[in-house]
Design goal:
GO terms for molecular function: endopeptidase activity; serine-type peptidase activity. This protein is an alpha+beta fold. It is built from 25 helices and 21 strands. It has three domains: 195 residues, no CATH class; 99 residues, Pdz3 Domain (Roll), CATH 2.30.42; 237 residues, 2-enoyl-CoA Hydratase, Chain A, domain 1, CATH 3.90.226.10. The two termini are 48 Å apart.
């Protein structure tokens, strides 16, 4: 069963070491025994019915955008619930949907009346259908298939109609099974190997479905209700809530990736900075995990179609142990060549994820300028050390302030803050970090469910950097990143460059439902509700919700905006606005954007690395937009050869631009090192290669800031605005502008 991405992502962030769903409590405590088969039909317990009603009371009264639980909401819940059970429309038929139809307007009554028999009957039928379909597929394996026909398979059925009847459902599953066979055939597997692999895959799926119990059914239904209010509200049943708490306490020992369900695959949703996956340079967002192997030589276990928590159980492990991932790359089609990646599980510390700096030297038209870059992976803060009064607690603001001082000493003339894929973090850090670049004033407005607005800002005079600056963002820049970028843009303090941001402008709080009942036992019965309670607004009055932050100079979108971002949710809260805060912009850069855009366009038109990036993006979009594939072996084989040739061309172009950084042509010799020494050597090489590899977007952002510095220097009035306190383009800025106190001293 696949859960909706929002719940998967919520739990993923809790177990960032591997990503995705928290495992069962047994898995987390080292007991890997599988769950027992459940007895059908599953029925709701009294406490589950009570938890549903209690959740409804909270959601209809205290949610930021509280909506009544009525027939209109019931229809939304019905749709979300069906999507959670059968989003690809491969289990239920039109007859099943007709049977379910009365429930469309009855789920509200089911919750208020504590009668969950309707949603449980849907879940029971899902289990029956799933087992039946997998047994049907196993039966097809015995006879094999003819791959010389002109048949095709629509593998993206989200917008398809429900199968009319059993015959149409059988045809769909024959095509689906045929495609599974063909993929393995294209990978060079023999018929016997394919038959064994698929039979084991389908049998494993049946086992996992048979283990689904009443709590799984209730979790799915209640999450459908929670997510129908807004995408970031979720319900966590007692088991999920317990696992969430356990996961939050675990050290980040794993591969350093956040996972999510995508169709029948487990896909890489995020890469944790400084984690094993990031350091390898071989794992990328969008990659799909096909199989997992334990240790250097353990057998590869096929995980296509697995539950997310089962995938987690196989990936997670003790520090310094090895796990192997067979990956279908994001930029490859469904028949793309699989890659084997070996990772050593490690603990990802906050120090490794800390802000980092470098200097890019730009030479153009006989002029050379240094541009400083600060890469900030998240708005982190060691809350525990801060509460205990540790003056040296770790925080994003303190680290960036230190790096700014070092960049001044290196005489940089502009600073780029790189927030690409920075998913947010501490609101306090976003507020204080903005204060490093403005003198005093509001940074963000926060409105609660009662409509009360609180303005948060920077009260400390002075700046750590008063020179020209730019903020580099992309679709993965969310929440606190959007607050920072929006404030810099509203003040006219710097340029925002890149792609439109995620658009998450809401705040959630966790409600322990057991605290509001007469439950006297130590064991939780009602679970927890993660509920939206506030919304962020820019100081200009517009929300960061839904629209995010639109860059002053935009880079090409990569196609992920169709599946990733607030606007991809049907029930996302709308964009709204409130009166602006009392603030005064320090400059107006709009008059110069045209010149900067023209220089940018001319430069990228002649840039080989930019052209390569555009070509790769175009191919990526093409593969992602493809929803139907041929079931003819010869045609698929030709398509794969064309794809392999195109990828080889891309690699060759990268090698020309970047130099040989992957070491693929290096001879393999016995270097006399032990495993740990060899791992360290490999890690150092990967870091060195990463520094050599081209980052066209970052390089271009530095060049745009280079141009901006030139324009500012040529305009006395603009220089006076952009460089408050009369700051200059060198370390002299530090003497001209009062230093911003460290965050620890400011509070």
């Amino acid at each position: 069963m696949k859960l909706r991405p929002s719940l998967a992502l919520l739990l993923a962030l809790a177990v960032t070491g591997v990503g995705v769903h928290a495992q069962s409590a047994a898995d987390l405590t080292g007991d890997n025994a599988p769950r027992k088969y459940s007895t059908l039909p599953l029925t709701a317990t009294v406490s589950q019915a009570q938890a549903a009603q209690l959740s409804a009371r909270f959601l209809t009264r205290f949610h930021y955008d509280a909506k009544p639980l009525d027939d209109a909401m019931s229809q939304k819940i019905f749709k979300a619930y069906v999507d959670s059970l059968d989003s690809e429309k491969v289990f239920f038929t039109q007859a099943d949907m007709a049977k379910f139809a009365p429930l469309k307007t009855q789920l509200d009554d089911a919750i208020w009346n504590q009668d969950l028999s309707g949603p449980f009957s849907m879940f029971n039928l899902y289990i029956t259908r799933a087992i039946d379909r997998m047994n049907f597929a196993r039966g097809l394996l015995k006879q094999g298939f003819d791959f010389n026909t002109n048949e095709s398979y629509n593998f993206d059925r989200k917008k398809a109609e429900w199968p009319k009847d059993q015959a149409e459902l059988d045809t769909l599953w024959r095509e689906r099974t045929m495609n599974d066979w063909l993929r393995l055939k294209l990978a060079g597997k023999s018929d016997d190997e394919i038959r064994k692999t698929l039979d084991k895959r389908y049998a494993g799926y049946i086992d996992r479905v048979k283990q689904l119990d009443g709590e799984d059914a209730f979790q799915s239904f209640m999450n459908a209700y929670a997510e129908s209010t807004d995408p970031h509200t979720d319900y966590l049943g007692p088991r999920a809530a317990e696992n969430f708490d356990i996961s939050m306490k675990l050290s980040l020992e794993g591969i350093g990736a956040v996972l999510q369900a995508r169709d029948e695959y487990t896909a890489i949703r995020e890469i944790v900075p400084a984690g094993p996956a990031a350091k390898s340079g071989k794992v990328h967002v969008g990659d799909r995990i096909v199989a997992i192997g334990e240790g250097q030589n353990g057998p590869m276990v096929d995980v296509i179609g697995w539950r997310l928590d089962d995938v987690v159980k196989h990936i997670r492990g003790k520090k310094n142990t090895t796990v192997r991932l067979e990956i279908l790359p994001a930029d490859a089609g469904v028949d793309g060549k699989h890659e084997l990646v070996t990772l050593v599980r490690q603990k990802v510390s906050i120090e490794e994820q800390a802000a980092k700096k470098k200097v890019i030297e730009i030479k153009d038209a006989g002029v050379t300028r240094k541009i400083g870059v600060i890469d900030l992976p998240s708005f982190y803060s060691d809350f525990g050390a801060r509460r205990e009064g540790d003056k040296n607690f770790k925080s994003a603001t303190r680290d960036v302030a230190k790096l700014l001082g070092e960049l001044k000493a290196e005489n940089v003339e502009g600073v780029v803050i790189d927030l690409r894929n920075n998913g947010g973090g501490s609101l306090a850090e976003a507020n204080e970090l903005t204060g490093l670049f403005i003198d005093q004033g509001p940074v963000v407005q926060v409105r609660d469910a009662r409509g009360e607005v609180q303005v948060q800002g920077d009260d400390e005079p002075g700046m750590s950097w008063s020179g020209p600056m730019a903020v580099l963002v992309n679709r993965g820049s969310a929440s606190a990143s959007e607050i920072f970028a929006a404030a810099i843009q509203d003040y006219g303090r710097g340029l925002i460059i890149g792609q439109p941001t995620f658009g998450k402008g809401t705040v959630q709080n966790l409600v322990d439902l057991d605290r509001f009942t007469r439950n006297t036992s130590e064991k939780p019965q009602y679970g927890e509700l993660k509920m939206t309670i506030q919304e962020f607004f820019r100081i200009n009055g517009g929300s960061t919700q839904l629209k995010g932050v639109t860059p002053d100079i935009q880079y090409p979108k990569n196609g992920d905006e169709k599946d990733f971002g607030e606007s991809t949710y049907d029930n996302a809260l709308p964009w709204t606005q409130i009166p602006p805060a009392d603030y005064k912009p320090v400059a107006d850069l709009k008059a110069y954007l045209g010149q900067l855009q023209s220089k940018h366009d001319a430069r990228t038109a002649a840039s080989p690395s930019w052209k390569l990036m555009l070509d790769e993006l175009a191919q990526y979009k093409k593969m992602r937009d493809k929803t139907t594939i041929s079931l003819n072996f010869a045609q698929r084989q030709n398509e794969r050869k064309e794809q392999d040739a195109l990828q080889a061309e891309f690699r060759a172009r990268h090698k020309t631009i970047d130099g040989d950084v992957d070491g693929s042509d290096d001879p393999v010799l016995d270097d006399g090192l032990n495993a740990n020494e060899r791992s360290l050597k490999s890690e150092l090489k990967q870091e060195k290669d990463a520094k050599k590899a081209a980052d066209p977007q970052l390089e271009e952002t530095a060049h745009i800031l280079f141009d901006a510095v030139g324009l500012i220097k040529g305009d006395t009035k603009l220089a006076a605005e952009v460089l408050p306190y009369g700051g200059r383009f060198s370390s002299a800025t530090a003497a001209a502008a009062p230093e911003k106190p460290h965050a620890a001293d400011a509070h």
